[in-house]
Every structure is written in C-alpha cells, then in structure tokens.
Amino acid sequence: MKKNIFIKLAIEAALKAGRYIKGSLGNVKNIRYKGEINVVTEVDKKAESIIVGIIKRHFPYHGFIAEEASYGKKECCAPSEREFNWIIDPLDGTTNFVHGFPVFCVSVALEHKGRVIAGVVYDPTRDELFTATEKGGAFLNKKRIHVSKVTHLRKALLSTGFAYNVKRARNNNISNFVRAIKSSQAVRRGGSAAIDLSYVACGRYDGFWELYLNPWDTAAGFLIVNEAGGKVTKFDGSKYTIYDKEILASNSKVHSKMMKIIN
C-alpha cells in the first residue's frame, strides 16, 4: 500500500479547503442551526465539497464519512463496508469560526479496513499542518513531533470540550472538568477536538478528554497522537476506536492519573 500517495492527497485537500476557509473568515452569510447550539455555514459545505472533489478525482470508489453530508450513510456513522473510507471534518470549530475566534481547522483521515492509516489536521490561521501515517511518525510542518515528558498531573496542562447536548445530557463532562481543574496545573477548552489532539501530539497539551465526539472529530488526531508517542483509550483505559463516544488522549505518562479523575 502506497501511504505516501494518500497522505499527499490528504494534505492537498486540507490545504486547499483551509485556505478557502481562512479567506471566508468574517464573511459568513448563511448560518443554519443543526441543533440548539450546533451551527453549520455555507463555508463548511463548500470546504467539504473541495475536499471530496479532490479525493474523488483520484479515488472515485473510496467511501466517505463526512460531517456535513452522509454520502448515503447514517449521520452518526457505523464503519463503512468499503475497504477505504475518507473521514472528513471540513471545519472543526465552526462556532469559533462564526464568531471570528481563530481556533478551527480542517481534519482529513483515511481508514483502511478499520485502521486509520493517514491523518491531516490543518490550522489555517497559524498555517500549521499536522500529519501522520501509520508507523510513519507524526509531523508539524514537516518536522517530527513528540508528546510531552510531563509526569506529574499537577504540572500538566489539559484540555477538554463540551458536547452540543451539554444542557441536556446527564453525563455532561462538567464534574470531570471541575475535578481536572483541581488536580492539574490548568485546563483549557479551545473548541476544536482535532486541534486539541494535535496539541497533545506536539507537547503543548499533556492530556485531552471529551465525550460524544464523532469519527470526523477524532480520526486524524487519534493517529497523530499515537504516532507522536502518545496514548489514546476510552476513559477506563480500554481500546479506543474512532466510533466510540469517549476519548482520553495523553502523553502516556499522565494517562493513569487522568483515568482516576475522569469517568
């Protein structure tokens, strides 16, 4: 399998979509609500069409799992029966984007027979390109990256997020957030899971957790963390897949300590 072809294509698609998104910042005309606080814009949809169009020209028979269009699949998707599936979040952090808060990105990953083998997260406001291939390492703008070496939770900078159902869900992550604040150096909430995972991979964060995410939120970041030497599991330490609804990622050194305060 020629993974270099796949990662180059993912990079091309993410860069083109990201540059379009950056050029659209502050010029959003149509905002639609998919839920009480879950927004989508014409920029999300156009960015997705850019990515899908580039990939389909090269691999017309590959499957797609994307946030803004189901491509014949259920929105909150189960794994596809296709051998290759591109998992796409064209604009992770749409709420931030709409408000002009510069924390958002493009996430593109490729799944092969249930394994994520290539992943790209592109932050257009900082021009930061995070990439990884299975067993090929993780990189930020072509320089290899590694997770942090922090071993004590009291010295750890953590990150998390809150799902769109935070106002209704019984398990809304707020109690986890409170415990983490009391146990760590600090906790940040940036609003983009793909960026949060990428920051764990390059050592800016020491750990990240969240609930109710979808495959397009985590697929690329999951691989990037793993390839940077980090650890990704469910809250109880069991194996994580991108179709699970809870994720705990860390530099591995604070993982067990995070498990004790996250449930």
Question: How is this structure best described in words?
Answer:
This protein has 263 residues and is of the alpha+beta class. It contains seven helices and 14 strands. It has helices at residues 3-24, 42-58, 94-99, 174-183, 193-201, 215-227, 255-261; strands at residues 31-33, 39-41, 63-66, 84-92, 105-112, 115-123, 128-133, 137-140, 143-144, 157-160, 186-188, 207-211, 231-233, 246-250. It has a seven-stranded mixed beta sheet with strand order 3-4-5-6-7-8-9, sandwiched between helices. Strands 11-10-12-14-13 form a five-stranded mixed beta sheet, sandwiched between helices. A two-stranded antiparallel sheet has the order 1-2. Helix 1 runs antiparallel to helix 2 (42-58) and helix 5 runs parallel beside helix 6 (215-227). The longest helix has 22 residues, at 3-24. It is globular, with a radius of gyration of 17 Å. Residues 70-77 have low confidence and may be disordered.
Q: Which sheet architecture does the biggest sheet show?
A: 7 strands, mixed
CATH homologous superfamily label of the largest domain: Fructose-1,6-Bisphosphatase, subunit A, domain 1
CATH topology of the largest domain: Fructose-1,6-Bisphosphatase, Chain A, domain 1
Overall mean pLDDT stands at 91
Given as residue ranges, the uncertain stretches (5+ residues, pLDDT < 50) are: 70-77
| Cα distance spanning the termini | 39 Å
Supply the CATH class of the largest domain: Alpha Beta
Count of all domains: 2
Beta-strand percentage range? 25-35%
Helix-and-strand structural type? alpha+beta
Number of helices: 7
The dominant shape is globular
Order of helices and strands: HEEHEEHEEEEEEHEHEHEEH
Number of β-strand runs:
14
**CATH architecture classification of the largest domain:** 2-Layer Sandwich
Radius of gyration, whole Å: 17 Å
The side-by-side strand order for the widest beta sheet comes to 3-4-5-6-7-8-9
Helix content: 25-40%
